Amino acid sequence: MTDAATLFGLLAAALVGIGLYALIVNPQPLRKIVAFNVVGNGVFMLFGAIAHRGAGSGWGGDPVPQALLITGLVVAFSASALAIALLLRLHDVAGSATLATDAPARVSPDGNAADA
Amino acid sequence: MTTTPGGLLLVLAVLVPFVGVLAAFALGGRNAQRVAMVTILAGLGIAIAVAAAVAQSGDALVYLLGGWGVPLGIALRADGLAVVMILAVAVVIVGIGVYARADFATPPGVREARAPLVFWTLLLAIWGSLNLVFVSGDLFTLYVALELLTFAAVPLVSLDGRAETLRAALRYLLYALLGSILYLLGTVLLYGVYGTLDIALLAARVQPEPATLAAAALMTAGLLAKTALFPLHLWLPPAHAGAPPAASAVLSGLVIKGSWFLVVRLWFDVFPDVVTAPSAQLLAGLGAAAILVGNVVALRQARLKLMVAYSTVAQIGYLFLMFPLALDPASARLEGGGALAGGMMHAVSHATAKAAMFMAAGVIYAALGHDRIAGLAGIGRVLPVSVLAFTLGGVSLIGLPPSGGFLAKWLLLAAAVATGQWWWAAVMLVGGLLTAGYVFLVLARALASGAEAPALRAPVPRSQEAVALALALGSMLLGLVAFTDVRFLGIGR
Q1: What is the mean pLDDT of chain B?
Q2: How many beta-carbon pairs below 8 A join chains A and B?
Q3: I want to staple B77 with a disulfide (CB 3.0 to 4.6 A). Which of B137, B146, B225, B258 is the partner?
Q4: Would you say B170 and A87 are in contact if contact means Cβ atoms under 8 Å apart?
């Protein structure tokens, strides 16, 4: 079964690579947050492959990486939630959700220039 | 490894701030500040007790969580490095707590205001996370501690809710998330190869093989993004300059030291045999670039808070100069000698000096209603205490005796001479001159004779000026520890 672990490891590496590329290249913050989650899934998959590899001694799998994986999922979930909350707030206040500082200030529905 | 007497203090150092977070959040309103004040006093007491226990026993404090031994359980461990950082952070947090009382008091007639509640809870959360970073003996616990630190620090940037501070906070968060996921990837690789994440066990097992080198590179790069070492510093100036002054002092003085401390832990305690001379030179090279670029850009700033923020970018560079200087030429191994002591001294001295400078800049901003450097003429006559605090903090950054910055640079210069790496000495000297340039630029304006003294928009709380001066004086006199027989750094290493 080492082949399965190797295959999963390679897939995990591919996910990390794709996610990193998108995280660096995409200018939109929402896409960056999604890309961060793709990298995260790659890392978690690597956790799974390593847990599986530790199963050689007759166990169903090495339990330590599984425990770490669950903690990691919770942390990544909180991180995404915080990022999305910030992004929504930025959209409410500025009328646009870009990171560029010279973004044109849009006029909010009540007629005031929304960008401070 | 077993739990040592006094090991419970380490649990308290982490737990008490987080209990404070929960209590402040649950009680809410005006009580949040009261809870924070009580917790800050208790935390200071715990920090002093930890230092006393370590000094008395002459060995590291250890606590095994739940009594489970390593590697199945998790150990908290405070060696000399951790104790120095715990003490420094406690002192600066106390200063920030006193300073913030005026800015983040819940206004009369209001049951609960958003900014004070958030500030006091997050201040305690940052403190607990930092203490966890300092005492963790396990790479995954360190990951969780780093994430807690980020989650507590990011909202402080956008406390006032303006669009540009929200953007700065989001950019900071994205850099931090990239950094932590790279760190986690390295941790997974290490577990896959060696089957443990305990620092002491790993240090005995690691070999210079491809997976270890990849893990070390990934973890270091991730932490550099969080520490804002050049060229990953772009998020720092808007985030630190846009935050309220008390929050800027926390972020600039303390938060970046968390991820930097982790780089030190990794390089000196986990990978001392694995890291290579070129990689250490690369770290210091980035540090040198940070010193030059940060200082030059600071010189060109028109606003005081942005200038102080760019000065942080430069000072982070000094924190990374020690890595090649600590490399023993004979054994090609990282040795914690004078260079490490210099780096630690610089971290502590910068924490106090930079907190004082942001506080003084905040007082000046509040008093004048702006912080344009060109408009500071004659301010020395109306706000002498704040200008003195700013200057003393700046003098410590420049490295004039007897400041902590002087002792730090002295130790680093001595290591540079001893290992024959004169080019790092040259970088330090040029950096000192540039730092002097922007400090004197402000000072010349503030003390300009003949200028009309500006009218103050608002009265200045004396406590804010006093605490900024106290921290600046602390940084100024820190170099005098060279004459005492306090020798924490070598304990438990």
Answers
A1: 90
A2: 92
A3: B137
A4: yes
Residues B347, B368, single domain; the answer is yes
Residues B193 and B300 in one domain: no
Rounded mean pLDDT of chain A?
Answer: 81
* A20 CA: distance to closest CA in chain B (Å): 8
Highest CATH level, class, for A2-94: mainly alpha
B256 lies in the same domain as B281:
no
Q: Facing residues of B372 across strands?
A: B303
**pLDDT value at residue A111:** 39
Write down the pLDDT at residue A115.
Answer: 38
**Cα–Cα dist B231/B228, whole Å:** 8
- The boundaries of the domain holding residue B323 are 276-493
pLDDT tens for each residue of B122-139:
999 999 999 999 999 899
Question: Is A70 at the interface with chain B, CB within 8 A?
Answer: no
Q: Confirm if A9 and B151 have CB atoms less than 8 A apart.
A: no
Residues B243 and B282 in one domain: no
A99 in contact with B, Cβ within 8 Å: yes
Inspect the interface and report whether the beta carbons of B191 and A32 lie closer than 8 Å.
no
List residues bridging with B63 in a β-sheet: B76
Scan for tokens 């739990």, then name that residue.
B3
Query: What pLDDT is recorded for position A21?
Result: 95
Selected for mutation to probe chain B from A75, A91, A106 (highest B CB count within 10 Å) is A75
Q: Are residues B269 and B312 in the same domain?
A: no
Taking the complete model, does pTM exceed 0.90, yes or no? yes
How do the domains of chain A map onto residue ranges?
2-94
Label residues B334-355 b or e (16+ Cβ within 10 Å = b): bebbbbbbbbbbbbbbbbbbbb
User: What's the half-sphere exposure (Cβ side, CA atoms, 13 Å) at B414?
Assistant: 13
3-state secondary structure at position B232:
coil
B170 to chain A, closest Cα gap in Å: 6
**Final residue belonging to a domain, choices B244, B274, B304:** B274
**A21: nearest CA in chain B?**
B178
Last residue of a domain, one of B242, B274, B306: B274
Span B43-59, mean pLDDT? Answer: 91
pLDDT of residue B15: 94
- The count of residues in chain A is 116
* Backbone dihedral angles phi then psi of residue B137, each to the nearest 5 degrees: -110, 25
Q: What's the whole-number mean pLDDT along residues A59-70? A: 82
Cα B452 to its chain centre, rounded Å, is 38
Look at strands B61-64 and B333-334 and give their pairing: unpaired
Smallest CA-to-CA distance from B238 within B296, B172, B188 is with B172
pLDDT value at residue A55:
58
Nearest to B353 by CA among B308, B310, B384: B308
The count of structural domains within chain B is 2
Residue B257 has pLDDT above 90, yes or no: yes
Residue A48, Cβ neighbours under 10 Å: how many? 17
Note the pLDDT of residue B139: 93
A48 touches chain B (CB under 8 A): no
Q: Is A79 on the interface with B (CB under 8 A)?
A: yes
DSSP state of B333: E
